[in-house]
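Lab intake sheet, docking and co-folding queue.

SAMPLE TYPE: protein with bound small molecule
LIGAND NAME: calcium ion
LIGAND FORMAT: SMILES
REQUESTED OUTPUT: full 3D complex as structure tokens
PRIORITY: normal
SUBMITTED BY: R.K., bench team

The fields below were copied directly from the construct record.
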Amino acid sequence: MATNRILRRVAVAGAALAAAGLLSAPAAQADPPAGYYAGAEGKTGAELKAALHTIISSGVTTLNYDDVWDALKTTDEDPANAGNVLLLYSGESRSKDANGGDSGDWNREHTWAKSHGDFGTSPGPGTDIHHLRPTDVTVNSIRGNKDFDNGGEPVDGAPGNLTDDDSFEPRDEVKGDVARMILYMGVRWDGGDGFADLEPNDQVDNGSAPAIGKISVLLRWHEADPVDTVEKDRNDAIFGIQKNRNPFIDHPEWAASVYG
Ligand SMILES: [Ca+2]
Ligand SMILES: [Ca+2]
Ligand SMILES: [Ca+2]
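RESULT FIELD (auto-filled):
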């Protein structure tokens, strides 16, 4: 009992220090482990891309589509409310339990639309949680399988997002996040394991081709919305589950070298 009381006092003191900005909460698994990117050192362009592909395809734990629900409840947990996840496009905080297919639920958005390369939801690109995000069911269906580009009309239920017939523009706060997920997918999925070689290109209306655009716009979004703590923490959380990392979150400067 005495020990519990002391621990409680330590916790209260810690909370007070944190509130005063004197103590930051320890991250679960901050930054890549030493040597993770050793194979990429000194490389540029296609050589860098190939090295990164090898690194992020090694030792991966491949989830099945059902596992993704639980994974997202961890990777996308609202830092301010452990009972909720944050929705990608709308930015809303919604109960983890409201996952499903009905209006008002959240579901599993494939940021790299799964029809682009027709990879479905079998274990592989369709269950790669680096690009799977909780989104409102209705907003997810409005985004559909559109490519990414600037412009359009406001999206109902997701302020700041725009869409037109052939493209979707996410709100400013997640433009870079979306870009870095796409950049990751192009490096991670290179035609192995029976799946198409996914590559971003510079057009919209890609249909079922294993491509998504527009890379020129995505690279601008990558610059305009730099990596923040929430995105870094998500990368760390994914590393704990799926055992690979998004190199463009750890090393934003590699985007121009690989895709420039
Ligand atoms: Ca458009
Ligand atoms: Ca962001
Ligand atoms: Ca590729």
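REVIEWER NOTE: The chain has two domains: 1-30, 36-259.
SIGN-OFF: pending second check by T.M.
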